[in-house]
Amino acid sequence: MNETALRLAYAGLHPERLLGLLAAHGEHGTLRRLRDGRVKASDRVRAAVGVPGPQRRHELQNAGYRFVSRADDGYPHGLAELPDAPRGLFVRGQLPSRPAVGIVGTRRCTSYGKRLAFEYGAAVAQAGWCVVSGLARGIDGAAHRGVVAAGGVGVAVLGNGLDISYPPEHADLESHLVRGGGAIISEYPPGTPPEGWRFPPRNRIISGLASAVIVVEAAVKGGALITANYALDHGRPVFAVPGDVRRSSSEGCNRLIRDGAHPVLDPDDLIEELSLVLGPPRGSREPLRETCDEGSLTSASQQMTIGT
Fold first, then answer.
1. Which of 5, 86, 205, 271 suits a disulfide with 187, CB 3.0-4.6 Å?
2. Average of pLDDT values for 84-111?
């Protein structure tokens, strides 16, 4: 483990600011300057980076987490290739080695969009691929509930510390994802609150982990379009679900399609398109009875044998 990267991660700085400091001073130089007060930082930041690496490792182990630095073998290869990739990730669970698909969308989704996200998440999981999303309310959460219902593998990328469930109603969903062989990850240390400015940068991690990104419903502004733009910058194919041209929650998707994103019409169409990128599916589609309702996992999905 890169202990310098671990100590710097506990600073909780904005990723762009940390990247600038690293470019100017390197890891050891940045750590010294933050610790000694030679760059502008709060007392909390100076105290955080002053804690020795072994103590931090012990704290993480006791909490059931671990830190994977960019130099470690366990760091995701696709993410490591990006110039703005985090120097390290805090992880709860296991980072899957199988191909991953990002499924994202608006928090203010329609019931139609939520159902599609659930079906897409389940279809991708049944195909044997991993689903990556942000675990936000709306489309993200519905996609990951589809993963759980299908007994698949999912990774949720948080904009806060691993010890904080946000939104709080997704705490059970987080546990199901981990028990199912997936992971909850963040570039921010435990104890980091879900502040608004921390969420846009996490979308580059979703794109970096994924081999393709699907936008189910999205307005012209918001995290889903940020993720799609990162995916385009990263050379990942972007798929979008067409929607009502008069509905604001479909405007972002319709514009993506206008500008060249691949339209997808249903789960079968999605799997067919993804097969051209990821190769043949490893599994087969099965009908599901579980609900995609926000904050709920039915008894049927809870009784599945994932993680047992």
1. 86
2. 95
Q: Which residue has the tokens 């798929």?
A: 239
Which helix or strand (DSSP H or E) is residue 204 part of?
helix 199-209
Cα radius of gyration (the chain)? 19
Distances (CA, A) of 285 to 19, 35, 135, 191, 288: 43, 54, 24, 40, 9
As a whole number of angstroms, the distance between CA 136 and CA 177 comes to 14
Residue 56 exposure: Cα atoms within 13 Å on the Cβ side: 25
Closest CA to 151 of 267, 277, 280, 283: 283
CA 203, 125, 238, 167: dihedral to nearest 10 degrees? -30
Q: Quick count: other Cβ atoms within 10 Å of Cβ 50?
A: 13
Q: Is 167 left (phi over 0), alpha (psi -120 to 50) or beta?
A: beta
Nearest to 182 by CA among 91, 270, 118: 91
Q: Position 167: which residue type? A: P
**pLDDT class of 300 with cuts at 50, 70, 90:** very low
Q: Which residue has the tokens 């990556």?
A: 132
As given in the structure block, the two tokens for residue 158 are 């948080």
- Which amino acid would we find at residue 308? T
Residue 143's contacts (CB-CB under 8 Å, 6 or more residues apart) are 103, 104, 105, 117, 118, 120, 121, 131, 133, 216
Token pair 């904080």: residue: 164
The pTM of this model reads: 0.91
Q: State the first-to-last Cα distance of the chain, in angstroms, to the nearest integer.
A: 30
Q: Which two tokens stand for residue 40?
A: 């502008």
Which amino acid is it at 84? D
- Name the strand (E) or helix (H) holding 125: helix 111-126
* Dist CA 240 CA 136 (whole Å): 18
pLDDT in tens, 160-179: 999 999 999 999 999 999 99
CA angle 258, 260, 265 (to 5 degrees): 75
